[in-house]
């Protein structure tokens, strides 16, 4: 996918215009306007907002995921910019500075809704459910998640400033390369370079942390074939954090295995389960296309280990070079299996451990109302941000 395809159609004209502008002249104009605004000229500050708030608004829209509360975020951004204008070190970078204020305001708004910036389930792609399909994590899980999230934050904070900014904007805030380049005022190629260097550093830094929590096993296991039966998401209020669960069901049996995953991953799996076509290929579809183009076949995916209430999985591949096993998150494995029609197997030891964990739970909690895959997809289609919306294949023209 080229970079232009990563940007919503509403951003394309603006980005093209920015590319055609003389950067030095634009920076000088901003600097002049900042100087006049600092001297008390209201019209100069209004001109700065008119010029740069549209980009800040689009960035915030990607962060919040909806128009709800967006106006409050933009008003807070403008107010903070006015109050802190004297602190701006480089007046020529007013646009990037304003967007940074907007990003902070958007994240604060999300925290106010009870959402988390870092998702433990999204990082690992599969967590054990020991209670009915209802609400939050146990104190031990929360402590474990906080510890891991803290280690990630420290590792990101230790990156050089340029790499840190790029990593946070792309991987935490969800901006595209083009949008990140516009915010930072650098070429797209520089964004990619910073991200590559940042990934290498983080991989080296966090690898030892991962190894400390994983105990490998080479014991041959009995496997049970299962299928994705449903995706559930807890209906939440403004002050609650949602919870997404993929439910696996034994083929020809009655056993079930609920696995907590991240919100984005659950949405992708729900789209596949409901046979919904999206305008552009998602990550699992892109991966499947790469495998097809390389002549590699997915024989099966396996959820083979449960350690510290975290599931571990792998993908069994076959190609011209022979067979190979690739470690992966369960959420990615399940999405790839649905995309390619590959079987899903779960180790009997895992199913036994899950059942034992449920029995050991001291005080089972009452289930709460949850959306199923169909309701999740309907909500996603309704809230789809820009461009063509996803379409259920049964509703597509010619279906």
Key descriptive features of the protein:
Bifunctional nuclease domain, 399 residues, Rna Polymerase Sigma Factor, Chain: A, elongated, disordered N terminus, 15 helices, single chain
Describe what you observe in this structure.
- By secondary structure, the chain is an alpha+beta fold.
- The protein folds into 2 domains: 1-112, Rna Polymerase Sigma Factor, Chain: A; 223-395, Bifunctional nuclease domain.
- It is built from 15 helices and 11 strands.
- It has helices at 12-20, 23-38, 42-64, 70-83, 94-112, 120-124, 139-157, 161-172, 177-184, 188-212, 263-273, 283-293, 330-340, 348-360, 373-383, and strands at 127-128, 223-234, 244-250, 256-261, 276-277, 297-307, 310-319, 322-328, 344-347, 370-371, 391-392.
- The strands form 2 sheets. Strands 1, 2, 3, 4, 6, 7, 8, 9 and 10 form a 9-stranded mixed β-sheet that branches.
- Helix 8 crosses helix 10 (188-212).
- It is elongated and about 75 Å long.
List the helices and strands and how they pair.
Elements: H1 12-20, H2 23-38, H3 42-64, H4 70-83, H5 94-112, H6 120-124, E1 127-128, H7 139-157, H8 161-172, H9 177-184, H10 188-212, E2 223-234, E3 244-250, E4 256-261, H11 263-273, E5 276-277, H12 283-293, E6 297-307, E7 310-319, E8 322-328, H13 330-340, E9 344-347, H14 348-360, E10 370-371, H15 373-383, E11 391-392
Parallel strand pairs: 6-9
Antiparallel strand pairs: 1-4, 2-3, 2-9, 2-10, 3-4, 5-11, 6-7, 7-8
């Amino acid at each position: 996918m080229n970079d232009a395809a990563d940007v919503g159609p509403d951003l394309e004209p603006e980005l093209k215009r920015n590319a055609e502008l003389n950067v030095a002249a634009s920076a000088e104009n901003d600097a002049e306007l900042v100087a006049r605004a600092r001297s008390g000229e209201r019209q100069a500050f209004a001109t700065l907002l008119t010029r740069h708030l549209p980009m800040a608004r689009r960035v915030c829209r990607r962060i919040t995921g909806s128009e709800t509360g967006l106006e409050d975020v933009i008003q807070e951004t403008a107010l903070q910019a006015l109050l802190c204008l004297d602190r701006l070190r480089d007046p020529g970078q007013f646009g990037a500075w304003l967007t940074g204020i907007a990003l902070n305001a958007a994240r604060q708004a999300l925290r106010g809704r009870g959402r988390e910036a870092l998702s433990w389930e999204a990082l690992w792609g599969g967590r054990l459910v020991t209670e009915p399909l209802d609400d939050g994590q146990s104190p031990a899980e929360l402590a474990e998640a906080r510890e891991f999230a803290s280690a990630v934050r420290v590792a990101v904070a230790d990156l050089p400033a340029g790499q840190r900014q790029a990593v946070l904007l792309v991987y935490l805030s969800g901006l595209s390369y083009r949008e990140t380049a516009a915010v930072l005022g650098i070429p797209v190629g520089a964004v990619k370079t910073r991200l590559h260097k940042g990934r290498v550093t983080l991989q080296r830094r966090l690898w030892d942390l991962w190894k400390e929590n994983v105990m490998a096993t080479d014991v041959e296991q009995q496997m049970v074939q299962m299928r994705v039966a449903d995706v559930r998401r807890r209906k939440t209020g403004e002050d609650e954090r949602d919870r997404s669960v993929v439910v696996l069901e034994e083929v020809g049996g009655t056993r079930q295995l609920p696995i907590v995953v991240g919100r984005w991953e659950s949405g992708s799996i729900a789209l596949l389960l409901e046979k919904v076509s999206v305008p552009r290929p998602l990550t699992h579809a892109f991966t499947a296309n790469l495998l097809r183009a390389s002549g590699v076949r997915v024989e099966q995916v396996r959820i083979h280990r449960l350690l510290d209430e975290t599931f571990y999985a792998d993908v069994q591949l076959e190609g011209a070079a022979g067979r190979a096993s690739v470690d992966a998150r369960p959420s990615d494995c399940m999405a790839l299996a649905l995309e390619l029609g590959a079987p899903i197997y779960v180790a009997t030891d895992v199913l036994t451990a899950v059942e034992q964990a449920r029995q050991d739970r001291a005080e089972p909690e009452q289930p709460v109302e949850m959306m199923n895959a169909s309701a999740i997809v309907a909500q996603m289609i309704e809230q789809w941000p820009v461009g063509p919306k996803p379409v259920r294949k049964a509703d597509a023209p010619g279906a």
